[in-house]
Structures are given as structure tokens and as C-alpha cells.
Amino acid sequence: MAVVSLRNVGKVYPPTARDGASVTAIDDVSLDVEAGDIYGIIGYSGAGKSTLVRLVNALERSTSGEIWVNGQNIAALRERELRRVRLGIGMIFQQFNLLGSRTVARNVAYPLEVAGYPKEQRAARVAELLDFVGLSDKAGSYPDQLSGGQKQRVGIARALATQPSILLADEATSALDPETTHEVLALLKRVNAEFGVTIIVITHEMDVIQTIATKVAVMDQGQVIERGPVFEVFSNPQAAASARFVSTVVKGVPSAAELAVLRERHAGRIVTLTFRDSAVDQKAVFGELSAANVAFEVVYGGINEIQGRPFGHLTLALTGDDPVIDRVLDHIRTLTTVTEVR
Ligand code: ADP
């Protein structure tokens, strides 16, 4: 079941006084996020990602289309009705947005106060949430006494306070170092697995998508230009922008410039082999080369694990008799994709 469903959604910002042109931030986007998904939305700055998030949690109204959240078309709702919809959506931010004058516990309690939970219930819920994010000992601390990772964990606890079914994470790890990023992503995975919360992750970092997302949509100039299960998009990106994002985490076929450097450093023929899933047996491929007495060196590339499935490209420098190499490459072509630029 789709918990968030966008149908031909558009958002045009009216012209500002400073420059006279209107801005189409979202251009005819249709997208389904299913219950239990961790759906990554990736794109460069200005692609429309934050606008999309603000439309889903109704902080901003769309100018066209339908936005279904938990079975309700929020584009058609009045402000008063929207408040109830927003209670079902948690949100975490790049800059954490904690209240500096409140302790950790009172930050987490804040949405419960707004929603009118009785005091005893609030205390119990806050304790439970701080335990879940591993910050029980920081209940009385203030935000500026915490590290970035701890602040985001408070942000997550606060976002979960009213037991939302959807969590929106807008560049939630962009201000964190890589190690802390992975801690926070691991926590989000637990939120998804243990509470069944559907998570929408907005990011410009492909690494975040690779680590956590099950599905991904690539945005460019207000449009979704590609979407699908993360493994499919990573292993076979269709749009040029998607391929550029994938290349930030997966080394593919070397570019012309990289190839020139490899040729300078290594004798022999340079070929790239694609390994996708267990469908391609590495042992068989390298066995063919050894059996034919073709010497090989791995000079570029790597194997990534995406959604628990191996994928990658290995570029080899092959030395031996040309006809022998041709013959063995023909064999290997029956096992996997071979790319050679001569
Ligand atoms: P992203 O989150 O991918 O960086 P945004 O959603 O912030 O992209 O922005 C998409 C486009 O909409 C950009 O061209 C941006 O300048 C424009 N935009 C965003 N918010 C506003 C606004 N409040 N008023 C006018 N233009 C806006």
C-alpha cells in the first residue's frame, strides 16, 4: 500500500520582486512510497528535493496535482485538518532544529506537549524514546552540550514522539562526519525495522542512498528522471545524472582521461568486466584467464555491496598473446559484460 502517493504534482513559486520570473520547483511529479520503504530522493542542489518534502508534510501547498498521505489527499485539506495529518509525519533536519533553551528530555517532550499528552504519559514516552536512541544519560543536558550525532539522535527521538507512520529526513546527515553519518543511518534503519516507520530520505549523497535506501528516485530540475529499487538503479542507471551519482560510489568503466593514465602505467590490454550479483562467477572468469596463461592485474574498480547484493566493475590489464587474449575474452563474454576500448 502506498503511504505517500504523488499524482502529477507541481509547485510554481510566484515571481519575486527582485527578479520577475516564476520558478517551477516541482514539475509534474508522480511517485509512490509504499509502507515500510526507505525511499531515497537524490538530486543536486536546486533539484526540488526540499520543496517535495515541504509538500508532503504540508508546510507548503502544491499548485497542481494530488498528494495522498495515509489515504488522504492533503492538497484538498484545510489548515485545521492538516494539523492531524502532520501528527502522522515526523521530520528531521540537517541543522537538527533543537530548542537550545530546553533540555534533551524537554525537546523530546515538546511535540507531546503540543499534541496535549498528559504529563505522566509524556515522561514515560520520553524515557522510552531516549532509551531507544541511547541517550538516557543525556536527558538533563542542553543541546549545545551534545555532539552533532547526539543532537541528531535527539532529533530522531523527538520526531518519533507522537508515533508517526512516516519519517521525513531532509539532508539529516549532511552536517555530520562519515562515521557519525553511519551511526545515524543505522539508527534510522532500526526505526524502520522495529517500528515499521516508512522513511523518506532526501540527500545529495549517494553514499547515504547506498547505505540505507531500498528504493531511490533521482530528481533533476523539478522532475523525477529515474526511479526504482536501489540495486537496479545502481547497477544499470539510465539517465546521465543518475550515472553521475552512481559514479560517486561505484567505480565503473574508466573515463577516457583515466584510461590514458592506466595505459601509461600498465602494459597490456585494458578491459573492464562487470560483476552483477552472483550471476557472474568471479572464480570462473579468473579461472579462464589463468587456464589460458593470460597474466592479469586488477588496475581499477571495485566490488560494492548494495542491498546485500554484490555489484561492481573490475578493470584488468591483460598481458599475453593477442589471439589467445581474444579467444579467452570471447569465452568470458559468455559469462559477463566485457568492455574494451582499444
Ligand atoms: P533542493 O532541495 O533540491 O536543493 P529546492 O526544493 O530547495 O531544491 O529548490 C528547488 C527550486 O525552487 C530552486 O530553483 C529554488 O531556488 C526554488 N525555490 C525553493 N524555495 C523557494 C521559495 N520559497 N521561493 C521561490 N523559489 C524557491
Automatic annotation (TrEMBL):
Tell me which Gene Ontology terms the entry assigns under biological process. amino acid transport
KW Nucleotide-binding (keyword) present = yes
Task: Tell me which InterPro entries the record gives.
Answer: AAA+_ATPase, ABC_transporter-like_ATP-bd, ABC_transporter-like_CS, ACT-like_dom_sf, MetN_ABC, MetN_ABC_transporter-like, NIL_domain, P-loop_NTPase
Q: Name one Pfam family in it.
A: NIL
Q: Which GO terms describe its cellular component?
A: plasma membrane
Keywords assigned by UniProt?
Amino-acid transport, ATP-binding, Cell membrane, Membrane, Nucleotide-binding, Translocase, Transport
The family line of this record is: Belongs to the ABC transporter superfamily.
The entry describes its oligomerization and partners as: Homodimer. Forms a membrane-associated complex with FtsX.
Question: Its function?
Answer: Part of the ABC transporter FtsEX involved in cellular division. Has ATPase activity.
What name appears for this protein in its UniProt entry?
Answer: Methionine ABC transporter ATP-binding protein
